[in-house]
Structures are given as C-alpha cells and as structure tokens.
Amino acid sequence: MSDELKPYFREAASWDIDRTAQAIRRARLAWGVAGAGWTCAVAVSIALALLMPLKTVEPYVIRVDNSTGIVDIVPMYAGGAEMGETLARFLLTHYVTVCEGFSYATAERDYQECGAYHSAKRNTEWYNHWNQTNPASPLNVNKDGSIVRVQVTAVTFFRKANGLSELAQVRYLKGRHLPGAAEQLTHWIATIEYAWVTPSRDPKTRQWNPLGWRVTDFHTEPESVADTSTVAAPNS
User: pTM, whole model, 2 decimals?
Assistant: First the structure.
C-alpha cells in the first residue's frame, strides 16, 4: 500500500468507528427512554390499583313529603351499630301489618315493599305464596273483593339456646271484610327471625328499607281456631 493511501484509509476507518459508536449511543438512548416509559406505566398502574378501593359510589334516597313538600335524604345504616328492640318492634309491627293485610288497590305495592325486607330464601317463599297457581294465594282467596286489615296486639322478643337474639313473636288480629257485611276477626301469632345486614344499594329497595333489616324466616298460624268473632260493618 502506498504512503499516499494510508491517511485515506485511516480516516475511513475512523469514520466507520464514529458511525458505529453513534449508533450504539442512539440505541442505548432509545432503550433508556423505553425503559423509563415502561417504569412510569407500571407505577401508574400500581397507583390506580391502590386508589381503586378509595373510590366508591354512595347511593342515597331523596324523600319528599306528599303533604308538606319537604325534601330530605333517607339516612343509610352502615351495618355496624347495634339496633335496639324499639326499632325492631316498629319494623316487625309494620312488616306484619303490610304483609299480612290485603287490598287489591295496594296489592302490587305491598308485595314489592314486603320483598324489600326479605332474605333470598324468604323472597322465594313469598313468591310461591303469592303465585296464582297456589290456591292459598291472597290473589285467589280475596278475589271476591275482600279487604284484609291487620292490627298488631303484642310483640315479644326471645333468645334461642344458641344465642340467637333476633327472634320475635308477633300477635295480631286479622279482619276480613266484604262491603256491606260484618268483618270477620281471627287471632294469629307469627314467629319471625330477622337480621341486620348491609343495606341494599338498589334505590328502589332502599326506598322501603334503608336500614338493612331482613326477615330470614317467617311462620304464622291461628292462635286459637275457635277464637273467631264478628264485628258489624259501619254504616256507609
């Protein structure tokens, strides 16, 4: 190789070395940027996963008084505080009054309201009881236009041997009335097991049951088969 060509080849070799080094630097920079991007993406995903439990939707029910027009928010029971017998007595009385009574004018609304107080097992029994294929369904028994009113006379609380305290017996009068006829009164006693659970998040259910009170078992029977009386119907 002539001496005149040696400087040319040295410059060509150095140019190739510079181009290779530049490509290596660019590759390292690209990998660094990609790595930083992936690190940020993973960090954001972890942060979102940690923050998700903190983001909750709290439904609420707005109640409007039909007579005064006053608007307020129905409070929600969180399922932690212990409910006293006073509140349980009110709910038991209301439940028996609504669910054991009957009127065609309010039958659908009463059926849905009672369902809002039921556990899944009790709701299945409630559906089967009201199904028109059942001869004892209120829709069949009262298809002659009868109206059944209920008056609770006593609520007694019990504690089972296993420690269960959400158990009560409700004594009540059931009056079956046909227009123009005397009202037939019968005495009944219901044994009810209930529980306090987290309230439903369904707005329609919470409209009737914002406290999470659930009837888990219900059994009723005539208190005395022979104890039946009649009361004259009021003058129209």
Answer: 0.60
